[in-house]
Amino acid sequence: MTGLVGRGVARVDGRAKVTGAARYAADHEIPGMLHGHLVLSTVARGEITELDTSAALALPGVVAVLTHRDLPPLRVPSFPYLKGFVPMQDTRVHHSGQPVAHVVAETPEQAREAANLVRVRYRAERPTAHLAHALDEAFLPPLFRDEPNEFVRGDAGAALEAAAVRVEQDYSSPMMHHNPIEPHSSTAVWDGNSLTLYESAQGIVFTRRVVSIAFDLPEANIRIISPYLGGGFGAKGPTWSHTLLNAAVAREVGRPVRVTLTRAQMYTMNGHRAEYRRNLRLGATREGRLTAIVDTSTAQLTRTDHGVYNTSESTLRLYDCPNVHVRQLGVRLDLPSSSYMRSPETTAHFGLETALDELAHELGVDPVELRIRNHASADPHSGEPYSSKHLLDCYRIAARAFGWARRDPRPGSMRDGNVRVGWGMATETHTFSAIQSNVELTVDVDGRATLRAATQEIGTGTYTVITQVAADELGMPLEHVTTLLGDTAYPDAALSAASATVASVIGPVSQAAQDARKAVIALAVADPRSPLHGVPAEDVVAERGYLFARGDRGRRDSYRGALARHGRPVIVTGSRLNSSGHSYGAVFVEVRFDPRLATLRVSRVVTAYDPGRVLNHRTAHGQVIGGVTWGIGFALMEHTMVDPHTARVVNPNLSTYLVPVSADTPSVESFFVDRPDKGSTALGARGFGETPGTGVPAAIGNAIFHATGRRLRDVPFTRDKLL
Amino acid sequence: MKDFAYVAAPDVATAVRAAADAPGARFLAGGTNLVDLMRQHVERPDTVVDISRLPLTSVEETKSGGLRIGALMRNSDLAAHPLVRTRYPMLTQALLAGASAQLRNMATVGGNLLQRTRCPYFYDRATPCHKREPGTGCAAVGGFNRSHAILGTSASCVATHPSDMCVALAALDAVVEVEDVRGTRRIPLADLHRLPGDTPHLETTLAPDELITSVELPAPAAAPSRYRKVRDRASFAFALVSVAAALEVTDGTVAAVRLALGGVAPKPWRAVEAERVLTGAPATEESFRAAADAELAPAVTLDGNEFKVELARRTIVATLRDLAREGSRA
């Protein structure tokens, strides 16, 4: 142990990324490769009646134009394939922007132009695009991933009826899109009955499974390669239809084919945060103790799948409320399938944390104090004790750093000239998953270590943190350890989603590194040529690549020496299970509102978190900056506009789908309790990535209320709503 | 993008000749708008005449005390030019309010004048749009129209002109110099852009082969001026409403005023009615309100953009109020 864990080590892949040496999915050069381009449906519901590919085929460079008439049948995989159907298998159109043809040409430009020349006629039916137009069709969807959509604890109806104080309100958010900066790309290379995919995938093991089912191929015949991702935010977690279609097309044309989605195509091809409405009813005592929560949400579904991704987790588990009734309803619309999008629990949590602020105002109780009074010291739903939870510390630390004690609670009371200042807060929380993961660690004859795992670097620092932990346990300098990820040739490991990577992978990494260290020490002490010969193994320590006898540092060997004499690598594996759980935190926000032009700025954000042990303070802070920025986008601008008549996305580009720019984002302060969770086998670290930001939309709305006295419940809080 | 013939013009004569010889040709300068439109298959020219190397990048003082700005001057260079910064600060502010630093480094003055609307339906070939395909309809009227125009619209088109620079040029009474194989002519900025009427696809009064060679600014006025842009995020977004204004107050009375609006109309909108109401009126909040109301009285709103009337009113009043205060301090 050399104290590397926790340190804000710089990205080990930083140089490769800034110099362009890192190969992303669309950067791999494959000899003989063709380029594909998808033709997407222009109607949202109906049948293809005519498909004329002649003009496209006549274009120079075009090799083939494949449609439902040409593709072999593909089996529809279940989760993590979400669409419920595979496009281009028949003439049915389920949503606008659904693939109807796949053009293959020698260059990407030729393919794209040819795609534009494919003529498709439809028998169009009138689509329904918005919840408001079909609320009377809301229903309770059946189990999804073995989870129900209704949860009952106690008797919420009766408790609400009996409550001294009640808050009942509706909260809503529109469709939103992930928009990773790297578009989805898939390159299919067939060799007989074996398939290699160069893929932008957050879960290569997932992708392999989906492809295996769709093509009825053994998993052993499939290799997925995804060493770097330019972001994903959930958009690359499930496997989407372009991957399956492109692989099928590559097989048909007998050459490798690459398809890379355009930005516009990414608004219908890879999921989104569903349009969402929620009715919340809180019951409480006069002292602010929650007695009932009745939570009825309605999310957009499709006619081909019923996945509910924006679950009411925080209603169920965050606060100590004895009576809870959650119903997660859905409405089938003629839209693409929704999916997980960064911190999916934010969607519901926004309403809960806003409603609590409303309750606090109604009761005249400080919003922090209200949360403390309802703090859960055991899981309210299961009754299980927490292995570790320091949320109360988070409230205290962040409140003090923010200066919350100076807050005048009266709305509109804090001013700076014409500008009204508002302070708001919210609890931050998200679940994290733990997925069985395996790693392989090789200490080579040069004494350097290589760690292999089929997990991914989504951009958050996975290479770095794994390398740090391995180097620390091995007692090697960071640069003596190389981490290789993103290849199913390596041992199966977690997907880079659901805040699962650290919780799932770090235990196995740590175990493998410990085992490798012990194995090499055993080699040294057993070797008469080693200066450590005969020293008890438990008395040998490893530091900076050297092995020392404890108490007699003159007796020194090294990984390099021991392995060179051994003459062959030492290879160990690690696989240690972990359990899923929650991370917690608190966010405090200051907004400045100028009523003259209804100009709103988020001017200050202070956060504190309990993610268990922090493995790298720099990447953890990076997650906070990212999460808070997402929260600002959710609160103030993100909105996929779907045309009510055509069910087409109106703003499928970064010019009109607004996300925060630097000027919208203040510097973000973050504090960490940084105490290991003894329940976590990942060195006491919990999954954390999705927790920051979950409370930000509500905290901003609460700050707006404090500044203006106006309560907004429908995001985004755009200027027109504040005029 | 379909294949096209590419002509790199070394001089203006070659450029305008190439355009005259190839009907439907498009001039390519910075490419920040044309290339996007070609990728979207909204523009499908057979010939692209690259004018980016033409020697039209200087700023010269005119005999009348104004400036002549080469049409290929980059937006960032123009914004930073000392004569523009000192004599026409409103123009610098407008330029810097537009797009991003990267786009401003590419975009030219001529291209900015001719940039096309960002109405999202104009870019989506699967939806009807009279501007893109005359006679097909307008999807914006019954669709998402929060960003659309409230002044100067017609039943066939409600798209806005997206430029910031042009709003300042409208307030400054700029004159555009154009050239074709027949010769040169001068067009007041106010007459360069058309209102949509029944022909929203005809956006300017230029002939297809006319090339903008320069923009002339009259001598600057001494009055305080400002460009103020109101948008959905702090930077890199098109205007919901913008105001270019210059206000000269003498003894508490408005001696002269220039006012132009962006984000609310199909063309850079010179607020002639507001100027008429203001000129000679007391420089008071009441006058500013009356002027804004007069200008906005003919506004026609849609489901999504009703707020623009109030936002425009407040932005006009706030900008004039600030200028009046600034003038009284001077």
TrEMBL record, chain A:
SUPFAM superfamilies: CO dehydrogenase molybdoprotein N-domain-like, Molybdenum cofactor-binding domain. Residues 19-126 form the Aldehyde oxidase/xanthine dehydrogenase a/b hammerhead domain. It comes from the Bacteria. InterPro entries: Ald_Oxase/Xan_DH_a/b, Ald_Oxase/Xan_DH_a/b_sf, Ald_Oxase/xanthine_DH-like, AldOxase/xan_DH_MoCoBD1, AldOxase/xan_DH_MoCoBD2, AldOxase/xan_DH_Mopterin-bd_sf. The keyword Oxidoreductase applies. Keywords: Molybdenum, Oxidoreductase. It holds the Pfam family Ald_Xan_dh_C. This is Xanthine dehydrogenase family protein molybdopterin-binding subunit. It comes from Actinophytocola gossypii.
From TrEMBL, chain B:
SUPFAM superfamilies: CO dehydrogenase flavoprotein C-terminal domain-like, FAD-binding/transporter-associated domain-like. InterPro entries: CO_DH_flav_C, CO_DH_flav_C_dom_sf, Diverse_Substr_Oxidored, FAD-bd_PCMH, FAD-bd_PCMH-like_sf, FAD-bd_PCMH_sub1, FAD-bd_PCMH_sub2, Mopterin_DH_FAD-bd. Residues 1-222 form the FAD-binding PCMH-type domain. PROSITE patterns: FAD_PCMH. SMART domains: CO_deh_flav_C. Keywords: Oxidoreductase. It comes from the Bacteria. This is Xanthine dehydrogenase family protein subunit M. It comes from Actinophytocola gossypii. The lineage of its organism: Bacteria, Bacillati, Actinomycetota, Actinomycetes, Pseudonocardiales.
